[in-house]
């Protein structure tokens, strides 16, 4: 391996639910996905890119996991996983990522934010 091997980032162990995952940093090959996540103009593309980042991260951490298992992860664990991915990749200060996580947390707690910024309780 060349000296570039020293530029490979180190992972971080994170407990999510009842399991501990070794979350590894994203690589140069993930750059197009990161650009799509930052694209505020297309929410669907942004969500699909985040889903792909999560899938890649989980498959790196748990090589024998299936796409079906990944699809069944609940939102409560997804939020913690996304926070860990952003932290490992030093992305936690990115405004669009922060807003994205905030929206997920609000949905998790049954709240949403109106255009005026007021929080309302979701009616069931």
Q: What is the overall shape? A: globular
Task: Give the strand order of the largest sheet, numbering strands 1, 2, ... along the chain.
Answer: 1-2
Instruction: Say how many strands there are.
Output: 4
By secondary-structure content and strand pairing, the structural class works out as: alpha+beta
- Report the mean per-residue pLDDT as an integer: 80
By DSSP (H or I, 4+ residues per run), the number of helices equals: 5
Instruction: Please report which band the strand proportion falls in: under 5%, 5-15%, 15-25%, 25-35%, 35-45% or over 45%.
Output: 5-15%
Helix content: 40-55%
Description:
This protein has helices at 31-37, 43-61, 67-71, 75-88, 95-108; strands spanning 12-16, 19-23, 111-113, 119-121. It has 124 residues and is of the alpha+beta class. It has a domain at 24-109. The strands form 2 sheets. It has a two-stranded antiparallel ribbon with strand order 1-2. A two-stranded antiparallel ribbon has the order 3-4. Helix 1 packs across helix 2 (43-61) and helix 4 runs antiparallel to helix 5. Mean pLDDT is 80; it is low at 111-124.
